[in-house]
Specification:
By secondary structure, this protein is mostly beta strands. The protein is built from three helices and 19 strands. The chain is elongated. About 5% of the residues have low confidence.
């Protein structure tokens, strides 16, 4: 009888261990300038995994992140523990880095993090910069597609999703994220143009160079702004070879393909 009971308790204990979910909590760090998240791995098992755990939610499908069989959770005090994410995506073909937005019900303002392997172990990097801009609620739109391989996060970060590179975007004013909506980028994809209240703020995320071009209210009319720019402005190189939008030189022939993404 005692042997039977011991075997029963042992079976229950083993079953409980198998059912127990492995997880590890990470505290995020700040992004370092010029970082690349493109680590290679020798084993197909030593990669990050993205798994959908729920669908049909208000903000979209819900996912969790794992390294091998261990669930990744993020504790970024004073925020609550983050265990679920919205539409994460890999930043490289090796699947050793991913970007994800926390599914906390806050919608577009929910924080973004990068989970990446560093010497074979996961770490978490936060993509967040303080901002007190008057128009933050209007221009904080989460993730935007700049091109097939490039995304913009809240006007503050450019992420290239093929080679795992992340670039902070230089602000017009240090204390606030760029107070305008992303409009278009240059032919070489490195200069971003934002429609501001009375100008076109331009920033090259690779070099950090900026150029603010004052324009009329008529030019900034949301219904015609792209057409106005195509007709009256063109991409021109500065002394360093960086492309910025400038008013047309009447003697210059404009190639409309310059404005195609």
């Amino acid at each position: 009888m005692k042997t039977t009971l011991a075997a029963l308790f042992l079976s229950i204990a083993l079953f409980s261990c198998k059912q127990e979910k492995l997880e590890k909590t990470y505290t995020p760090r700040d992004l370092r300038f010029g970082e690349s998240f493109n680590e290679t791995t020798k084993s197909k098992e030593d990669v990050l995994k993205i798994s959908k755990i729920d669908s049909g939610k208000k903000d979209g499908d819900i996912f969790e992140l794992k390294f091998k069989d261990t669930l990744i959770t993020i504790l970024d005090r004073p925020k609550p523990m983050a265990t679920k994410f919205l539409s994460p995506r890999f930043l490289n073909t090796q699947k050793t880095a991913a970007i994800a937005q926390v599914a906390d019900g806050s919608g577009l303002v929910s924080p973004f993090y990068i989970v990446a392997l560093n010497n074979g172990k996961p770490e978490v990097i936060k993509l967040s910069r303080p901002s007190n801009g008057a128009n933050d609620s209007k221009i904080t739109v989460g993730l935007q597609e700049v091109s097939l391989s490039t995304i913009l996060i809240n006007n503050d970060y450019v992420v290239t999703v093929i080679n795992g590179r992340v670039f902070p975007v230089k602000r017009q004013n240090d204390g606030e994220r760029i107070q305008g909506r992303f409009l278009l980028n240059s032919a070489d994809k490195s200069t971003l143009v934002f429609a501001m209240a009375n100008s076109l703020y331009q920033v090259n995320y690779l070099t950090g160079e900026t150029f603010n071009l004052p324009v009329s209210a008529q030019t900034l009319d949301p219904k015609t702004i792209l057409n106005n720019i195509q007709q009256n402005y063109s991409w021109q190189k500065n002394k360093k070879g960086t492309l910025f939008l400038k008013e047309n030189d009447n003697n210059r022939i404009i190639d409309i393909s310059e404005f195609k993404k």
